[in-house]
Amino acid sequence: MVVILPIISFLGMLKQDDDLRFNNYPYFLGDQDSIGEDLDLITFDSIALGGVDLGAVKKDLFVKLDLDDFGWLNKDSVYFLEISNPSFREVELYRFNTDGKLAYKELVGTAVKSENSLRNPNPYFNIQLGKDLSPTVVLRVNSKVPLKFEAFIYPYSSFNKNYSLRLIIISFYFGIMVALFLYNLILYFAVKDRVYLFYCFYILFIGLAQLSISGHSYFLLQKNVFLYELSIIGFTTLSSVFVIPFIQLFLRTDEYIPKYEKYLYLIPLSYVISLVLWQMGFVEISYSMMDLNGLIFVVCFFTIGIIAARGGNRSAYFFLLAWSFLLIGLVVLILHNLMIINLGSYANAPLLAGTAIEALLLSFALADKINILKKEKEDEQLDKLEAVKENERLIKEQNVFLEDMVKSRTEELELTLKNLQNTQTQLVNQEKMASLGQLTAGIAHEINNPINFVSSNISPLKRDLKDILELMDVYREKGKLEFSEESKEEIDEMEEEIEFDYLLEEVEQLLNGMEDGAKRTVEIVRGLKLFSRVDEQDVKEVDLREGLDSTLILLNSTMTGVIKLTKNYEDVPMVECLAGKINQVFMNIISNAIHALLDHPIEGREPELTINTFFKDGMVGIQIKDNGVGMPDKVKEKIFEPFFTTKAVGQGTGLGLSIVYTIIENHKGSITVDSEQGVGTVFNIALPVNQKG
């Protein structure tokens, strides 16, 4: 509102300016000496209505103004003739006597080192009608910028009021821009975010550009004509250089328009080209290109803002609102330039309002980030304050609660010690597993030789016993014929005493038992050999099904014959891996499944453990499934975390599945768990066939 209300106020004076503006501008183009000292000999062959707009011309412009167009002028009063373009190098006033002879001339402009007590950027002259002076006034205009202006005649009071109001507005505008520059510069040093720095320089140069357009920068640049004319395009060019990185950071263009982001720098490049063209003397092309650049500039960024807003960028809404005002100001200025509307001496007012409101709204958008940070800081300070108050209360009551605090601290230390011990356990785990592998391999080797001896001798022993029994049958048959009755009776008594028939059956059973035991021992030794590879550090091709079988052999005794085991092994390729590490994975998961089934039986349901293997998409899959009680989601989410366990104290460290996860990850595989309470748990493991590539 502080920007809009003054704009509305002085725009209300436009109607008054209509009564003070010259409408007819007879003119011709010529050299400085094209006008003589006799008004009647001067021919004005062209006329402009409503204002002069000739573009860039190399010759001087001579314009005739008729004071008789204003019937309300008083010949005894002093008036001010003002030209509404501050960038003209020379504006020379020619006054003639009533007989048409030159009375006097007066020269002002940016290239004229004349005293300008009011520091009014627009060229102006004191005008008196006088009895001996002609009401016809001739102006000569020399300019390096396009010839576009209107002429106004003001009474002394109206001139001062009009000039003062414009000075207040431009001062108010520049004050806002300087305040926003300093505000955002402070924010930059506070938060170290480059977006504030780029915005500071954008505000600075867009504000200076408006001062150049209004002519006030002429005085800031110590009345240096070259620097002033350069600043009209130069400051706008510099503002375009800094606005691009600001837009990129503010709207995150790398996220919303990544393919087109690099083309944004074509905008400042086009401004630089305009500046070069102006320096080379192509003034009209340069200014036309500047006008086109301004329109493209706003439309392009407005489009980016819409894209970012659709993408959910909150800051984009501030941006669109801000650039809407700038777009409105630019459109109004273009309408004025096309003479569709006439803003008189306030032609730059819409652009002043647009840039000021844009700068304010964008500062609000940037401050929105600060508000968020401020809110977080306030919450943090509030939490700290509450903590301080709580500490004060605890200090006052420390004598009462000292024992509880000591106890609590002791428990914390014990927990820390436990965590350290568990960490130590995990660190030495690999060394222990290596030692276990060596020990297991040694035991398997030592058992293997004698058990091979036993198993290899069972078959010959069976054959020998069979031969002996056949011989016994022959003896019995022959004895029935040749032995005496007394000998037969003694033999029968002996057979009954030793239970000969039962003895034969028992020997057969013992031999079968020895054979089964030997086979079982051979399987166990084979499983131990496979499992003992935990200390291997070289990747080898391994059949994972053998690893599963060896693990099941070692865990067979823990199933107690209660758990039903189902194996669905599909043909899978050999897998490059550390066999011992993978066997360790199988051991941990299968043993956990067995404990879950035995420790938490479900009435009316037979415990079942199912193991599936398959090959899909270059990965070998292993699925270990039980139909136990399952686990809740909060347990499932933490199951692979170190030191997390659901077992009672002393029954588990919580490292098993954490180690499992690490082993699978090191093999470039994946492991997931699906579990539903009351249904069961499934571990899904996927391992690549090859570790390289």
TrEMBL record:
Family matches, as PROSITE patterns: HIS_KIN
Transmembrane segments: 163-183, 195-213, 225-251, 263-280, 292-309, 316-341
Alphabetical list of Gene3D superfamilies matching this protein: 1.10.287.130, 2.60.40.2380, Histidine kinase-like ATPase, C-terminal domain
GO molecular function, one term: phosphorelay sensor kinase activity
A Pfam family the protein falls into: 7TMR-DISM_7TM
Coiled coil location: 370-430
Keyword annotations: Coiled coil, Kinase, Membrane, Phosphoprotein, Transferase, Transmembrane, Transmembrane helix
SUPFAM superfamilies for the chain: ATPase domain of HSP90 chaperone/DNA topoisomerase II/histidine kinase, Homodimeric domain of signal transducing histidine kinase
Domain Histidine kinase residue range list: 442-691
CDD domains for this protein: HisKA (cd00082)
EC id: 2.7.13.3
Recorded catalytic activity of this chain's protein: ATP + protein L-histidine = ADP + protein N-phospho-L-histidine
This protein's name: histidine kinase
Organism of provenance: Cyclobacterium qasimii M12-11B
